[in-house]
Amino acid sequence: MWLGSCQGRDTARRPGAPLLVATTSLAADALRQVAWPGAEVRALMGPGTDPHLFKPSLADVRLLAEADVIVAGGLHLEGKMSEVLHKLSAHKRVLFLSDSIAPSALRYGEGMASAPDPHIWFDVRLWRQGVVGVGHRLAQLYPNKAGVILAQTQSYADTLDALQAWVQHATSRVPAQRRILVTSHDAFSYFGQAYGYEIKTLQGISTLSDFGLKDVGNLVAYLKARQVATIFPETSMPPQTLLAIQEASARAGHSVKLGPELYTDALASPGTEAATYTGMIRYNVNAITHAHTAR
User: pTM of the predicted model, to two decimals?
Assistant: First the structure.
């Protein structure tokens, strides 16, 4: 797992090329799908980086200052960077993927009525809206490249429509009573709403959320009562919390196993299955549905 930022990389700009900077690996993937070939796309956060905890280095701040356009997730996904991004938006083009999502479609964690859940990419339809919105805005900012941008945006929208159909089919094969997804933090709320899964977690929307012995006890009791056989760690979080749940569950007389690590807040390293958004969604859905259908 790589937890670095832009610090230490070659930050020299390509002469004559507009510099488009994305905050997260997911935002960078979206930007690459809609940007024209001559644009230079960079990401602040690499594979495996938790955006909730990310602290920009001096080199990152400089890159943001040099960027012609910045693309971010929004909804405070970027945690400590959110204030910086909103300040930059006063004098720089900052596009938020979440800006194209209707407020009525946003979900909120328990006790978080004023803070929407930023993990919109786990509903493919919402992510499609976000990416298309960024594509259309980019076309407005670069009218001489609008034809290419809009064509690529539509092509990728068609790809996401096909992905949505695939996810619906794959999840529908899991019996309704087995559609329970237990992970470390509450990143899959949109997935649950979109595809009929009950989501149970130890931590809240942010990986900064605290939990205590009562939370552990409640989750163990839930696992036993619902006879949940598999719980899923996440690539951007240490597995210790779920290992503790597994041990506590065993002491309570119920055996659970750890499933494959799911990708939640960041993509995988280049060249691997989950290195793109579509690959990450397929990887996660295959891991979840296989665990819930294999008995």
Answer: 0.90
